[in-house]
Design goal:
The structure holds two protein chains of two kinds. Chain A is α+β, with helices and mostly antiparallel strands. Chain A has one domain: Alpha-D-Glucose-1,6-Bisphosphate, Chain A, domain 4 (2-Layer Sandwich). Chain A is 22% helix and 31% strand. Chain A is built from four helices and seven strands; from the N terminus they run αβααββββββα. Chain B is an all-alpha fold. Chain B has two domains: 1-92, RNA polymerase sigma factor, region 2, helix turn helix motif (Rna Polymerase Sigma Factor, Chain: A); 94-169, Arc Repressor Mutant, subunit A. Chain B has helices at 6-17, 21-43, 47-60, 71-89, 113-117, 122-133, 138-145, 149-168. The relative contact order of chain B is 0.11. Classes of the chains: A alpha+beta, B mainly alpha.
Amino acid sequence: MTEPDRTEPGAPGHVARPFGTAGGWPVADLDPVRRLRVLAVGVRGAHVTEGFVPAPYDRVWALLDDLEGDFGRIVPDMRRLRVVRRDGPRVEALARSRYGMRAGLRGEQRPGWCWLQSRFLLIGVAASPEGTGTRVAFTGGVRVPGRAALVPLGVRREGERSLRRLTGLL
Amino acid sequence: MPYVSDDETARLVRAAQRGDTLAMAGLLDELAPYVARICGPIALDQGPDAAQEALVAVFRSLRSLREPAALRGWVRAIAVREAVRLAGRAGRTLPADLSTLPARGDPQLGADIRDVLDRLSPEHRAVLVLRDVEGLDERAAADLLGIRVGTVKSRLHRARDTFRKAWSS
């Protein structure tokens, strides 16, 4: 294992120049919805559907966090999703579509964030508090196998459907 | 940037370039705090927008990065450029006005770096961040910003002077 370079900014134990660095420097926070916008840019054909939901973040995320339950009522074709393994934020799940196809999904789930991929599917969901409500964002669709690209069919419609279903459950 | 070994970073970059979206997410985890630390002091209120725009530019062009070892410098340059651009667009290019700095004894003075940064232009803040947060030398800062070394020196002098006067008034 390589020893960390402590002279490198950001390395453990790095001591920045003493001038003006004694805490208090503003830091630009990248909330989960912004994260999703960024990642979607790297996925060709992806569309981000975003909306403001007039309900508190905790209530909204409680629904989206429930992978084997409400998540499947919100994200199209994820009704039969079963988590087979969890390790911290890492998740492995098995999804079966209504046409009988199976997808072994892997990814991460943490507060405000869920990103899952299989060889043929990609699902991204994010939520961040906004005023008295919540901003939510969806992306994903049928993946060009193994690539950071989606088949550009229905990506917009699916996201809008997810947003409507979520609003309907609140 | 949170410390991740160069090998692990290179592996993430290569996997992300091959289309593994989980590797892309891992790379974003690594880059976001680093970009946030650069964009925050330069773009101030526009910091989150600048961080987002910088990372959008990074992920849009990730395939063009040939050498993973160049990642950090490449991301740094994009983050500074986007932070200066968005701060400038928001009309934050007011010249330093030391007469409105908090008075001696103001309890905010010692703690509020933000208040002093507010009195500097985005270009001055960029020089300050590159030298005093990122630890670049004047030549490297000048190259990154596309300005002369002398300009870096004068901007740095002014920025530090603003801090010094605020701290000692």
